[in-house]
Design goal:
Low-confidence stretches: 440-496
Largest sheet: 8 strands, antiparallel
Structural class: mainly beta
Oligomer: single chain
Number of domains: 3
Mean pLDDT: 83
Shape: elongated
Radius of gyration: 37 Å
Strand content: 35-45%
CATH class of the largest domain: Mainly Beta
Length: 496
């Protein structure tokens, strides 16, 4: 989900409403409205003091007050409270939500994420509501609750006949709406800048809702102080198909040049922005398209199965094609089996390749064990670190013989060409030390009884067959430890 913003250096007029000295805005309701199934009130507020204030009321249904350093949302006779010390030097955004059985308060704030980036989050409070909401045609007032009044600036009022979810609040609080959203009841942008009325631009179908607001109390005025562009701006959010709409972008009488910029950290786009001229002769612009050319760091490791030994020189592929580094050479695992590559945004799969080597799950990620022949792709839209290493399951064959006596040196290699004259031997390959050893342990007195040879299967760095000279083991010698070639993984012992 990407955001595209529209910004201009022109001083396009934007306004808010200033309330003081017992002034407020009244929105008459000519018909009865039912909010029993859901309701949301939203607004930007700039307090002139930290004292108590009445912010919003629909008599017998809802009230929003700021009292004793906390916001209090009243539904019928029940309340939810959110402690908050309001600033007097900037706007804040407040949402009060009722969903039929619970009430919520939300205030957006900036927090640091795990990557040290500032992101939007919500302070919140909730409470169960057991009572019911009655249908009535009582007026809606902004800046007045009973005898309590708000002193300061108010802007961008939205009222909904449904409960907005937390994610929806977080997604839309900082951008202008179209006014045709589902179940929007009133939308007062408060940018008129003249007269003694604010106009509702919301629509249901093709009909305007016309829940306009009238100035009351004699001290309502227009202000040029508005939320910052970071708090509230012209933004379009892409849907699942990547489409977006930015509506209601203001311009000067002779037109304004706007810069349209796609944004979604840490993504990159081509082009990085587009300049469009908006005027009475060019109020609609279509096909303002951007391509996401982002790539993301993907890192992981390849080890031999059942060990922590890294596999060097494994080639990393994206969609079956080699990945090349800045030096134009293929990306390979290092001495410790580690790799780090850049993967383009979108759906891809990662695979491994090294001549003579075999890997778990076909050396591919993602992988569906139930459908091993299917090619599954992952949607890469952020950096990724594989928590579990890829596993190299390559096997090589090690063949040798354990018998006693000097005459054994003259016996030809091969299965069934010698007689076991020392008993049963256990062969262990140790991959835990720097200099691995092959250990023979004589644990049986069955001298000369069995014709036996041993086949040791293991995994090592380079696939090869290793032939050992016969080890002379005397009957009274329990353990011999001849040096062996570099063997790195767990051993599977087979005998016949």
């Amino acid at each position: 989900m990407h955001c595209t913003t529209a910004s201009t250096e022109d001083q396009v007029p934007a306004k808010s409403i200033s309330l003081s000295n017992l002034s407020y805005i009244e929105m008459p309701q000519l018909v009865e409205n039912d909010f029993s199934n859901g309701f949301t009130f939203q607004s930007y507020l700039k307090f002139s003091s930290t004292g108590n204030a009445g912010i919003f009321q629909k008599t017998s249904n809802f009230e929003l007050n700021y009292t004793d350093q906390k916001f209090i949302f009243k539904v019928g006779s029940e309340t939810v409270e959110l402690p908050y010390a309001v600033p007097t030097d900037k706007f804040i955004h407040v949402s009060a939500v009722y969903n039929g059985d619970s009430a919520f308060l939300y205030i957006p704030v900036k927090v640091l994420n795990g990557q040290g980036q500032l992101i939007d989050s919500l302070l919140s409070a909730s409470a169960d509501i057991s009572g019911t909401i009655t249908t009535n045609n009582n007026s809606i007032t902004l800046g007045k609750v009973g005898t309590s009044y708000f002193s300061g600036l108010i802007d961008e009022v939205r009222i909904w006949k449904r409960a907005l979810g937390q994610e929806e609040v977080l997604l839309d609080f900082n951008r202008y709406m179209i006014g045709k959203e589902n179940e929007i009841f009133a939308y007062l942008r408060m940018n008129e800048g003249f007269g003694e009325r604010v106009y509702d631009i919301s629509k249901t179908g093709s009909n305007f809702n016309e829940n306009h607001g009238d100035f009351m109390g004699g001290n309502v005025s227009w202000s040029s102080t508005v939320p910052t562009i970071e708090q509230l701006g012209n933004r379009g959010i892409t849907d699942r198909e990547g489409n977006y709409i930015i509506s209601g972008v203001p311009f000067l009488t002779d037109g304004s040049a706007y810069k349209f910029t796609p944004m979604l950290a840490p993504h990159e786009f081509d082009p990085g922005y587009k300049i469009l001229f908006l005027s009475e002769d060019a109020v609609v612009h279509n096909n303002i398209n951007f391509i996401d050319i982002s790539s993301f760091n993907v890192n992981g490791s390849v080890v031999y199965r059942n060990t922590t030994y890294g596999v060097k020189g494994v080639q990393i592929l994206i969609d079956g094609e080699p990945v090349y580094g800045a030096d134009t050479k293929p990306e390979l695992t290092n001495d410790k089996g580690l790799f780090e590559i850049q993967v383009p945004i979108g759906y891809h799969f990662i695979s491994l390749k090294k001549d003579g080597h075999v890997f778990d799950f076909g050396g591919r990620w993602p992988y569906d064990e139930a459908h091993p022949d299917s090619v599954i792709r992952h949607n890469f839209n952020q950096n990724l670190t594989f928590g579990k290493p890829f596993s190299d399951t390559t096997l090589i064959t090690v063949v040798g013989r354990v018998i006693g006596g000097t005459s054994s040196n003259e016996i030809a290699f091969g299965f069934g060409k010698s007689v076991n004259n020392i008993g049963r031997a256990t062969i262990t390959l140790d991959h835990s030390s720097v200099n691995p050893e092959l250990t023979f342990d004589n644990i049986d007195e069955g001298v000369g009884k069995d014709t036996i040879s041993y086949k040791v299967v293991t995994e090592i760095d380079n696939a090869k067959t290793v032939n050992m000279k016969p080890c002379r083991i005397f009957r009274n010698a329990a353990i011999l430890k001849p040096k062996f070639l570099l063997l790195k993984n767990q051993v599977n012992l087979l005998h016949d």
